[in-house]
Queue: 4 jobs
Job 1
Amino acid sequence: MRSKKISAVIACYKDKQAIPIMHQRLTKVFKNIGIAYEIIFVNNGSPDNTADILRKIISKDSHAIGVNLSRNFSSQMAFTSGMEIATGDAIVLLDGDLQDPPELITKFYDKWLQGFDVVYGIRTKRDSSFFMKVAYKLFYRIFQKLSYIEIPLDAGDFSLIDRKIVNILKQFPERDRFLRGLRAWVGFKQTGIPYTRHRRMFGKTTNNFIKNIQWAKKGIFSFSYAPLEWVSYIAGFVTILSSFTILIYGVLYIFYGAPKGFLTILASILFLGSIQLLSLSIIGEYIAKIFEEVKQRPKYIVKNIVRNSDTSKK
């Protein structure tokens, strides 16, 4: 029987200091497990010298592969590009900043051997501010309530995915990807492993409040029709409210003459205007996703792929 192999895919952006440590820790984990492996580093258009660091690592380790994208195509596309060339029977996705501990792969592997097709990390604790802890917890619970599929709570991209799932994900044509949602969408046998997500080991986080809001919108508008339903509910409520208002004003006109009041008219206009803008913004989010998909542009562009055989010749 052919021995199994695991491919680690690491999305790297401004992680030049963390990459060598990530390589060392992954190598140690896979050797302790005693399994064939490959480590695929995806340079997601990082402006630092990530490409040079990867070339140096790859020149010394035949298990390491580097994928340099032509620019930053988002972490989801970085993972996708690595999945395209991965040859393992299972693939592990990790961010390159070492917030997700490579050592947890051992537990992922054990669950995989028990028959689970997807094993994901559950962020039960995280080293961040109180506000961000509450915000993340709140997002995952709102996302789960709104989604039309069962979304695991507090589960990020850090996961082990069986080859048959990877092959299915590679067939998906969509460009605006939310992998943790797609991973849940495919189904199969899945489980989670709790862990603590630490702060970024080096440098400052590339996320901010605005990016987190955009990330939340990506997930919700990719896996929920609830916002569109809200527009219908709001429209129905406003229609009923308007009907009652017209009726009341009609009665007042008959018995007391024409109602007067500039502030009443102004409040009504502002209320209806805000409802219209909110509805248009929700519809606009879905139209924007449709627009992005119908353009049919490539998901990403690979500048080059660096392997040990390439660097050894130089």
Job 2
Amino acid sequence: MSGHLMFGRGGAAFEISSALVDTTALSVVKRDGVKLINQYEVIKDLGRGSFGKVKLVRHTDTGELFAMKVMNKNVLRKKRMGTRNLLMDVEHEIKVMKLLDHPNIIKMYEVIDSHEHHKLYLRLEYMEGGQCMDSKSDSQALSEATARKYFRDLIAGVEYMHSVGVIHRDIKPENLLLDKNGTVKLADFGTGQIVEGTHMINKSSGTPAFAAPEACVEGAFSGFAADVWACGVSLYMYLHGKCPFMSPNLVAIFQMIRENEPVYSPTLSPEARDLLEKLLDKDPATRITISGIMSHQWMAEQ
């Protein structure tokens, strides 16, 4: 089936481009108390979000584990954010993820969508270790050695992502997941933006506490530099267990980000503090770049 507009049961239109669909044959059955989605056995629920459920599934022949995102297209089509509905946002995330193939970015293996069914299925890499840190509350600070390992993985993924013209716009520990080997992978590309020719953007997105100073005011700014700032806030959180700027008031957070300097732990090594100060430079023109981060002394330590 070609084109952008399809029709579901009862003639209801849903908008997923057929060019993004890998598999149109879909079988969902229960056999001996076990639910099967095509050749994948459902093991358990992993979580639930605004877009749908995530289930742990196992390939019936190979035994390989995957995360299966299950979304109701009719529900997503009815949920609107401004001029867009959530199904359009899901389609955008699929487009972004199909551009990406890197060891430090979560992999999407398959998009399953049949016009005979009202549900959309995304088969993703299973990240057994879960979030490397919760962004929502005070957490135990990591050792510099662990923080460095996680941060190296993050920066490797961001370097690749920027090289193919993708800005994430919501980098934070909550979106940095661990696989079974302890490797950090960047996830959740719902706010991702594909750029061509320029990396200047004019719309802030993502989580306020991780927003760059230049994203807190009107006007265009570099999406690459804003991602670097969010990497800096993530590293700060690794090393302090909390964000540098926090307030229940959104206006206050943005003011703090623009005007206040972070408070650094006296236990930080001089090299860690130096890198953090370069990452959290309020001027995007002088803020450290990805190549600068990779060659920084703290990154090279064992």
Job 3
Amino acid sequence: MILKNFLIVITINLNMKIVSGSSSLMLSTRISEVMGVPMVHREIKRFPDGECYVRIHENLDNEDIVLVQNTHPDGNIIEYLLLVDAIRQYRIRSLTAVIPYFGYGRQDKRFNEGEPISAKIMAEHLSENVDRIITVNLHNSEIIKWFKVESKEIKAEVEIARYFERFKPDMVISPDKGSIERARFISQILGIPFHAFQKRRIDSERVEIETGDIDVKNKVIAIVDDVISTGGTIATAAALLKNKGASKVIVGCVHGLFVGNALQKMQMNVDILFSTDTIENEKSVVTVAHLIGDSLK
């Protein structure tokens, strides 16, 4: 029985290849190494006017293809669509799209007449010509139902908790109500308490935060969030914690967008900042390659 299972895994791997979009080369390489499957030789370039060119340089007939590409910023959506079409020129067995960071995920509601539900539109269009979609930590898990093919959302909280563990935090903080369950889950893994702040957004970069009754004096505090964009929420939360006497503030997120001067904004009161490699940047120290590899088997 052991030999039979081993042979099944080898057979699957021999028929699988990975195509990396330009947004996810590091993660694609790690998935390739974890699974023992080859990367496809492809070409991606931009013309002087900004238009994208892609080409597959090897035969993909009778292969199970995994395309790894983010859909943020907008140029990556075009690249994704072109790569899907290029892959479909071959007689492949299947095409799985791995979208580590699903762009437009935070536009999942219609607030005013005349607005689209952008997340829904993107999910529907990204489903075209693929057989399956795997993504990581959607901003709203309900988005998964808008994909038109078999879809799976991977949760990276366990990997984030493992990285937090090395700093021996005393408490996990959710910076707003959106990460309460995430903070609770990580606190249970670490065996420490959690607390949630209340946030009111002033504009796209400024927020007001109420900490509530909390004692953090001389404690190591872990803040967890799904997406860090401008860094305004984290910078404000970290400053409040330091003002209350926290000895160290450790911040971890799944998707590190770090727009503009976000990193500079947070560095004053954040002692350690890390993210996963769903978006590749200098803080991408936690990999989700094993989680994706398990979902692809």
Job 4
Amino acid sequence: MTLTYRDLLQHQSLDKSFSYGQDQIILYALGIGLGLDPVDERQLQFVLEDNLAVFPTFASVAAWDIAFVLELGIEWPKLIHLSQGMEIHQALPLSAQLRADNRIVGAMDKPKQNATILAAETTIRNADGGAVLARLQASYLAREFRVDGAPTGRRPAGQARPERAADATVSIATSPQVALIYRLLGGRAKIHSTPSVARQQGFSGPIMHGLSTWGHACRAVLQTAGDDDGQRLKHFSAAFAAPVYPGEALTTYLWRDGAAVQFETWVLARDKLVLADGRAQLKGLE
């Protein structure tokens, strides 16, 4: 059956239930490298139960539901995560029952690639009272997947990188085991864990989850502009430019832009840009 653009925009999953507690919060923090330095108090606040703090990008996995996209008839190995954005409306509590609404909000046909770019949005609400906690925006490239009537064109260009030198540079090591940890949050595609599968896909070994790289970059932003206070983060977004291998060091360049921070993340050992068009907004920078 042919999927039309109109049908696509009607694809949604409303009021789906999720829950989490401290164990998931800590597992997520470990999955973005927090605790790798076990004597760094700034990291330990996110991985120890005493006075535990929720790292803000935990919102990206608190109601993670890739099945919503795959239900369109897309094979998971042919789905590429292009970008991820997030707005925090309220700080996530240490445990919660959640309700999530998922919608496809747009698409772009890429006939030369025999593919479609999909735009999805997720609204996460606290089941107790219905307050919106976060809104997530994601884009994906679905290979060998077409939508009848979808518009063609190019993705909007990202904001230009400032021409001046970066205002700050932060290097963060990644753990060789980071993908094996992060997969326990739900991203169990074998390209992140099984060497033979990764090699079949053209990589030298398993690669990190893009959202883990994204979370590492948020650490750099908060360390530089947010005093490691996750509750100051209002917005965080970036485009995935290239994969990262577990154990590689991530170097993030940051530029202050009024009330916002622009950033890029590189693996300097390979001279490879891995996160582009990064932007964050924090309370207190106005």
